[in-house]
Design brief:
- By secondary structure, this protein is an alpha/beta fold.
- It folds into 2 domains: 163 residues, Alpha-Beta Complex (Aspartate Aminotransferase, domain 1), CATH 3.90.1150.10; 272 residues, Aspartate Aminotransferase, domain 2.
- It is 38% helix and 15% strand.
- It contains 15 helices and 16 strands.
- A hairpin with a 4-residue loop joins strand 2 and strand 3.
- Helix 8 runs parallel beside helix 9 and helix 12 packs parallel to helix 15.
- The longest helix has 19 residues.
- It starts with 14 loop residues before the first helix and ends with a helix.
- Bound molecules: pyridoxal-5'-phosphate.
- Pyridoxal-5'-phosphate (PLP) binds next to helix 5.
Length: 451
């Protein structure tokens, strides 16, 4: 028999209770909300989120890695309002509009025109689907139809639609949805944490690349592309690798005629310390996906950048040789206007230079964790800082992330550990004292959970 629903009184706010009745939340076992809090956010300003009880939370993870310049940023707000007065949306088939043109030109320029063609979608997973489909279609158009398998990395994450999920290596996803997914090759991750005493992260990268070479040598006739998260496998517990891996993958892809897809959805837009993470390796991929930070966390927008060579292969009199993909909101003008405002902030405020200082402040704020005996694998890449809690320090590894989240809330911070990995990925606009405050609050939250 169905339990009688207790209908929350809609005349009172009761956002949490009403949400638990009516909203099915992502990445959540809803029953866990019986014991850990769902939080109703009513407004935000800068790095602060405010709940319906008036509590302030410091957003240490940029609201799932999207928010680069703080909440309710006046410049991005204004750009969206201005665009709203002109045109909110128009279909991008048969039409174009100034924001999408300007954004595409600016992104092309940021790649020194190596990736001069931008194809748009709305979420990260869709941008990955686009890269996979384009690569697949390219080989068909080039009379190499056997090249249709994809190579992905152990511990990689590329989104949760079926194509993107196929190249994602997360055990519980593969268990639940594996039978829906195409077959892929999964290769060794160059995760620097694999380095044994005295071994360099570069050696780990070389080993991973040499096992990739064996696969390429055997299977290249059947392989369309390899997809990699450059420098940091973010959802995979912020596993960092040496840029040497990217250089080797680039060289192997050239040698064996395989596309290189760089998924920069999380590490792009300055997060790694350069605008694109691939720049640390001095290479360009054949496809580069962006989303998350591109609108500063304002509006859903994603895109796949690609080369002249790929674009030309589709250019034909025949409709079926065109790229066959569309979304209703492709290249939405409001989202493009938000993205342009972000790129302008990068330029006028010298964000990449400022982040060099920001990254140093981040390291200082978490210096305590480098010498904490409960912690291992302290690591940082630009504006991402992470470390792991040693297994024997954890009381309950299954509940640790939720307990840590709750302890963070009690300390006034939003953090969301991934398994035993605690990480921060803050907005680029934190002040020095907010950064210190974040480091201390994480330490206090950890002490609450581990003692
Ligand atoms: C988040 C993420 C995606 C998926 O983006 P969505 O917008 O959540 O679909 C894909 N790749 C990487 C590397 C990501 O971090």
């Amino acid at each position: 028999m169905m339990k009688n629903k207790v209908i929350p009184d809609v005349n009172q706010n009761h956002w949490v209770e009403r949400s638990l009745e009516a909203v099915w939340h992502p990445c959540t076992q809803m029953k866990h909300h019986e014991s850990f809090p769902l939080i109703a956010i009513t407004h935000g300003k800068g790095p602060w989120l405010y709940d319906d009880k008036g509590n302030a939370l410091l957003d240490c993870i940029s609201s799932w890695w999207t928010n680069l310049f703080g909440h309710s940023n006046p410049r991005i707000n204004l750009a969206i309002c201005n665009q709203l007065e002109k045109i909110e949306h128009v279909m991008l088939a048969g039409f174009t509009h100034p924001p999408v043109v300007e954004l595409s030109e600016k992104l092309s320029a940021l790649t020194q025109n190596h990736l001069g063609h931008a194809f748009y979608a709305s979420d990260g997973a869709s941008a990955v689907e686009i890269a996979l489909k384009m690569s697949h279609h390219f080989w068909q158009l080039n009379n190499k139809p056997s090249k249709k398998k994809f190579v992905c990395l152990e511990n990689g994450y590329h989104g949760e639609t079926l194509g993107a999920l196929a190249v994602t290596d997360v055990a519980i996803f593969r268990e639940a949805y594996g039978s829906l997914l195409q077959d892929v090759f999964t290769v060794e991750s160059p995760d620097a944490r694999k380095a044994k005493f005295g071994e360099s992260t570069e050696e780990i990268a070389k080993q991973a690349a040499s096992s990739l070479e064996k696969l390429f040598a055997q299977e290249h006739q059947n392989i369309a592309a390899i997809i990699v998260e450059p420098l940091v496998q973010c959802a995979g517990q912020m596993a960092i690798h040496s840029p040497e891996y990217l250089r080797r993958v680039r060289a192997l892809c050239n040698q064996y005629d395989i596309h290189f897809i760089a998924d920069e959805i999380a590490v792009g837009c300055g997060r790694s310390g350069k605008f694109f993470a691939c720049e640390h390796a001095g290479i360009w991929p054949d496809f580069l996906t962006l989303s998350k930070g591109i609108t500063g966390g304002y509006l859903p927008l994603s895109l796949c950048l690609t080369t002249e060579n790929i674009y030309r292969a589709f250019y034909s009199d025949q409709t079926k040789h065109g790229f066959l993909h569309s979304h209703s909101y492709t290249g939405n003008p409001l989202a493009c206007a938000a993205a342009l405002a972000c790129l302008e902030i990068f330029e006028t405020d010298n964000i990449l230079e400022k982040n060099l200082i920001g990254a140093q402040e981040l390291a200082n704020a978490f210096a305590w964790a480098q010498t904490d005996s409960r912690i291992e694998h302290w690591r940082q890449q630009g504006m991402i800082l992470a470390f792991d809690i040693k297994n024997d320090s954890l009381k309950n590894s299954a509940t640790f992330p939720r307990e840590m989240f709750s302890a963070g809330i009690d300390e006034g911070i939003l953090i969301r550990p991934i398994a035993n990995t605690i990480y921060v990925m803050p907005p680029y606009t934190l002040t020095s004292s907010q950064t210190l405050q974040m480091g201390e609050a994480v330490q206090h939250a950890l002490n609450r959970v581990l003692t």
